Amino acid sequence: MTAVYILISNGDDLFYEQLLVSLYSLRMHNPELNVVVLVDEKTERTLHGKRSKVRELANEIKVVEVPEEYNSKERSRYIKTTFRNYLSGNLLFIDTDTVITDNLRDVENTNADMACVLDYHATLDQQLDGDKIRQNVQSIFNENISDENIYFNSGVIWLKDTPAVRSLFDQWNHYWKIAAFEAGKCFDQPALMIANRKCGHIIGELDGTYNCQILTSVRYLHKAKIIHFFNNVWQGKEQLSPFLGHELYEEIKRTGEISPETKELIANCKSSFYAPTYFICKEQVEFMNDIVGATCFSSYLQKNLSYRAIRLFCQLRYNIAKILSRK
Questions:
Q1: Which of 25, 130, 166, 254 has the most CB atoms within 10 Å of its CB?
Q2: Contact by Cβ (8 Å): 279, 240
Q3: Considering the entire predicted model, what is its pTM?
Q4: Which stretches are annotated as coiled coil (predicted)?
């Protein structure tokens, strides 16, 4: 089995530093595993000096030819939807925004040619945005998918070297190009959903411990083999763990090394969360995802005029209700 990463980075972002953390954690638990990092030519030219450590941790840095006109995100997704073509044998693809916390050998017992974990560890019917995801996929590809309830997260992918898997990757790349260049939505998961549908739903469900999406469920944390921290802009996530903020990775960028303190955090990743850490219910998340909730929260963080006006109104309402309750 070969572990596969994809890196598109120009030195101004933190993707290289995230990769370094993930690779270091992988080597802690899987010292003999073959690791290949797929890059474009532009990225490969930056992997020297403070950005050269990856060459010590990976077995191979493999340059993939990418259309010159593609931007960084398009380059990343192009390689992601074609990487089966560049390598032989069983593969385990891993996103860079991850920390490996256990040996990964048992993934080879997966009873499917290709397997992923459910996005957010839930079916579309269970997800808050399930209907929105269906609508988005339907609008991109003009295809009725109301009967679909499975939507996979592509952050970790187990795959064998079979004709069926290679055919699915051809379809995945085809539909990603439609999404990116015809619909203007450079995301790979909607295309993966349609490709899987066209290929007869060959993707199996991978055990959630191989892609513990910690921001959306703690169900698999205690047994997690790979913790997926997500590259997204969710407000306040940096308050939960150093792996969800920028400071840890900025330090690596400055020094080119992983400090002893960060190595300790990586070794104890499952307990790296700040205290206190709070659970909130589904209805609270729905409110925060609503435009009203998101606006109110943003105003609260800024303590701006809108927040002060809302707070004054709520205080007056509370005082009036309190006075009326005494009558």
A1: 25
A2: no
A3: 0.92
A4: none
